[in-house]
């Protein structure tokens, strides 16, 4: 078989002839960025053939100079003989490198939980000492003492628990502390420790986003949030959106690669959260996790292919409870992992979790709309009488993905931009102060809005090339705008926004607005009928409402109707971690929601096309 050697790592692998270079890299334990999922459309998997040859399909993304220098696309090139391949240094996003978020670790902790009933609770008890000829094992004696305290018909004991039991029972003369998870009338033992252990215990809330993952470490004793960490989902290397990831997951080894990347991301952030709080991973005995349907499948290693194929059937919507060792989370091996219920192929547990923060969860007659803005845009419309939901693929622009100088809303990101109406020059602010490293979604929205309102950007997203604005530079058919010059930035490279970046943002906002508009239309309502408009999404913490309306992302309705929820998925997951009442409510909401597939609606593309302009082709919608 041909041998493929990768530089600069020096790793090599023998593969059958015809294997793609990207699959050969995966077999060698290397990752090559495939934001399009390996379809050859993004041009990001450029590698150089140093020795030997490979069969490379033609691509418009490879320039003549690059082709002459030996560059090819890894996903479009197959092995036919021994070959040496150079993988260029990936960019910061591909490496998963990001600056510290500077997030208040108590964020989300202000929402009180009246009924503190976490996924697992700590029980202290005295177990009778063994007696000769009583016929009872250590487990029998523990079970007889524990079940009445829990009022449980049956307690399930995992094997690792039983292995620890003899030692821990005798460590303090039968005094033990047991962490247990209650499931209806039954219970599941998680951990046993000899003696009267410390109060409480630790739980983790996880928001598994397509682009960004967030983890909160929470005290199960009092509900206090101890630390919060955010970071990129390592899966961005294999696709920027869920469709690309499903395409990438078409082979078993690629599905396993996606699962491993998601787990590595979550476990890394879990470790950072524990380090920040001075805690140990083994103290985490419960984890509540929320993600969209595709992300949930990929984390659990479930094949997602049928989600994208007619009749669009997921492997599971209501995920059973698993242990951390079954899932692969690096916390206590018996820790209970609860996954928020999904509703449809593209409306997942992140939405049912976020709904817990809205009035829709409590019922009421007023019409409310819940919008979660991220790589995927999910929408819930309704009141006490009905709940409708749908989803659209917005792309990662709001979270800095697919933007040349884009980054998450973290330290070093330009989050606010003001455009001078006369000169078109930009003034900006940076999260955390200091020099900028890039621009996040809110800063991009500010810039596009400011340039459009000042007349330096037309309705189709084209920059003014007349020379009136020195920050605009034309390069062939494309132009770009310099937000921060090279001497102002953290790495010495200018922060520029190109017309391609602007186009990506316009496509994202069009997907969101058209989906919400069509859903309202299908049930006989308009934006003017919405009493409360809930906006969720991590990047929105820095979002300027007026600028979001000016570009046509949000509807032009009275501003007092908007309610910003922040990362509602994470906050709702925390509630589900801590409260049985909220877990039951989440299950009830999921059962009440009717999923609409807008992609099958004949009017969706008309709505989407109309929204592909600033702010919209129907200007009366934005008075």
Structure commentary:
The structure is a single chain. By secondary structure, this protein is an alpha/beta fold. The chain contains 16 helices and 29 strands. The N and C termini lie far apart (66 Å).
Features of the shown structure:
25% strand, 16 helices, six-stranded mixed beta sheet, alpha/beta, 623 residues, single chain, 27% helix
How is the secondary structure organized here?
Layout: E1 3-7, E2 12-14, H1 21-27, E3 46-51, E4 54-56, H2 64-68, E5 71-73, E6 77-79, E7 83-86, H3 92-95, E8 120-126, H4 138-150, E9 154-156, H5 159-171, E10 175-183, E11 186-194, E12 202-208, E13 212-219, E14 225-232, H6 242-248, H7 252-277, E15 284-291, H8 293-300, E16 322-323, H9 324-327, E17 336-339, H10 349-354, E18 368-372, E19 376-382, E20 387-393, E21 413-419, E22 426-430, E23 438-439, H11 441-454, E24 472-475, E25 478-484, E26 495-498, H12 499-522, E27 532-536, H13 545-550, E28 562-566, H14 568-578, H15 580-592, E29 593-595, H16 604-610
Parallel strand pairs: 1-7, 9-11, 12-15, 15-17, 18-27, 20-29, 21-23, 27-28
Antiparallel strand pairs: 1-2, 3-5, 3-7, 4-6, 8-10, 10-11, 12-13, 13-14, 16-17, 18-19, 19-20, 21-22, 24-25, 25-26
Helix pairs in contact: 12-16, 14-15
